Structures are given as C-alpha cells and as structure tokens.
Amino acid sequence: MAMIANKCKGTKVTVVDLNADRIAAWNSGNLPVYEPGLDEIVSQNRGKNLFFSTDVDEKIREADIIFISVNTPTKDYGAGSGQAADLRFVESCARGIAKAGGGDKIVVEKSTVPVRTAQMVKEILDSANNGYSYQVISNPEFLAEGTAMADLENPDRVLIGGDTSEEGQVAVEKVVSIYANWVEKERIITTNLWSSELSKLTANAFLAQRISSINAISALCEASEADVDEVAKAIGTDSRIGPKFLKSSIGFGGSCFQKDVLNLCYLCRHFGLPEVAGYWEQVIQMNEYQKERFVTRLLDSMFNTVSGKRLAILGFAFKKDTNDARESPAISICRRLLEEKANLAIYDPRVSKSSILSTLGWSEEQAEGRIHFCSTAEEACDRANAIALLTEWDEFKELNYASIYANMQQPAILFDGRNLLNLKSLREIGFRAHGIGRD
Asked: How far apart are CA 434 and CA 301, in angstroms?
C-alpha cells in the first residue's frame, strides 16, 4: 500500500487495522516491520495520500477498492488442523465490508488463500442485500521479505484474476490501472479468479521444492565429499533449471512456504488426489530433516553432548534483512539444543528478545540462565564452545574471527548453516569449521 501511494499520487490509500498499537506504530518513526527502503517510502507519503487509521467502518464506506490483507495461518484446530488455511480473518473482513456498506466496491484478495476462497467472500458480500454490488478480485503478492520494496517497484509480474463476466472484467481493468502507473503492461497478467488464487500457492510450493531438492543433495555431498555449492553452480547454469533458490542451507522458513505447501497438500486431499498431496508433503519432510541433520552433526562434533555448554547463535530471523522470525529454521534448532541442555547466547540485529522468546515458547523466567540475549555477535561468541550461524546477515561476513576464536572455549567449533563463510580461512585460524553440503 505504501508503494501504491508512492506511485499513484492522485490515489488516497488508507491502511486500517483493529489493533490501535499497531496503527500508532505505523504513524510513528518506529515502524512495526523492518524492510529496507520502507521507512523512506512511508515517511515521504504519510499524511499526504497515505494514511493509517483504526476507523475501519468509516474507511470501508469511503473506499472504492478494498484490499483484504490479513493473516491466513495454518489451522491448529478442527477439520484440516495442521494443513488447511485458517480463513476466519478473511471471513471477518468480508462480513465487515458487507456490514459497513457505503456503495459498490471492488474487493481484492491480497492475502494468500486457497483456491475458491473468492466464492466464500462473494457469497458473504452478496448476502448483505444492501443494494450494493461487489466484485471480488484475486491479486496475490509475490514479493520477498528483505527485498520487498525493490520487488514491488520492479516486479517480475503482477497477477490479477477476476470473474469472466463483463462486470468482472471491468473490475479487473480498474485494478490493472493502478499498477499500470509504474509496471509495464506486459508484466501485468490477468486470469480467471481460480487460476490467480492457485498460482500463488503453486509458486511458493515450487520455490520450497527447489530448496528441499538442493538440501537433499547436500546430504549426499557430505557423504561423497562433493561440494554442494559447486554442484549448484554446475546445474544452475543449465538454462532449463536456472540458478535461483539453489542455495543449500538449514532449510526454508518464513510465514509463506511451509504454510502454503501444507495448504496445497490439504487441497489435493480434499479433491481426492492423495498421491499428489504425498509428493508435496515430502518437500516439508525434507525441510524438517535438514534442520534435524544440522543439530545431529553439531552434537557429533561436540562429543555427543552440549549439556551445560555455551552455544553462540548468530541470527534468528528466517532470512537476512527482515525482523520476521516466523517459522525460522532457528526456532526448531534452538529448541532441540535447549532440549539437549545447552545454554544459548543469541544475537540477531533485528529480531527482538520478545519475538525470540515467543517463537521458542519460553517465558523470561524459563530463559533465566539458559538463554542469553546479546547486543553484538562478539558478545554472543565470548567464551562459547561453538558457534551456529543460522541467518545470512551480511555483517557476519565482516567479523574478526581470529579475535572471536581467541576468546572461545577450545576446541572452538563453528557450524555455518548458511554457507556464508570461507571454511578454509576459518580452519587456518584454528576453528573446527563445518558447512552444509561441503567440508
């Protein structure tokens, strides 16, 4: 919405939320989301044509186009628990729009939703019987955290799906006209509603599949003394494959990939396709295997026990340049290390102490003496028995590892879970250094 306001100066964009604290943060100099370039865009447009408000009903009535941009987490209760998307927030938005009224509206699904969700939204809106007409559009987001502003400014594509009726196509063109202010027409793809909804799930599933595929090969590389980075480079030069998402690591995380693959599995089973569901479930299983394999290798290198030992955890976000720790591989790795009675010294430049404790499911009282929150990487590594690098923050490449090594317990062990560092250089310092799919 900030980018739309920035590119469409004649359009008034209002972001509404029921959470007053969150809206207050968006209206302050300390935004609740860290994303490179976001602060500048918000500050340039806030108060001009970009506004943040808790007056939900009033702003719905004023709007011509409404974007539903709410969370769709995996259900943790009832039918479909563990796989299906929880659509209660989408339904709540639809009911709120129907109740508020205020004229004919175009309602845009921005959230990632299962195929056929638009039917539910349309039925709720039509059942209002308030004399107004509603068109439902699917416009899934394909940006990546950490590069979101660049992705928005120069997208690979913008996907807009709508009803094939005349009214539906008019609504599609109105949404197209927003993006056409800065995106070339050939990059704006229009489809029917169901193709657009399914495309988002499928895109994330394919990306997750590539990560799990190269991570599966990383295990074979370690067993055969091949180098996974060299293998990835070799296959990535094949134009039919390409180099993207072939970086081996401790696994994928974030709010999208696992949720969307699981949702795809649920949909496949719902439509009577268990073999297809089983195929995609293997992507998740490989991701879990990669994280457990990392912990097992770390334990093996530390004489099969980390009880009472200090382990430095460098990075907790699921990827660099974001403060998002949702489904981060660091969560399950840290939980396993805590189960093994390790003491953790955690440093991440953007993820807060409260977010780390929340995702781990630990209270401050439980963390006392077991989890130490550090303000620098050097502090986390001081007197540590081992280092586990779990997020590929650029600053970790610039650390003085000779100085860090001198202040660690010996033998000093470093596990690079992102293949960010030069293992040869670390070994010359004295580290027992290990990577993923290479040694």
From this structure: 9
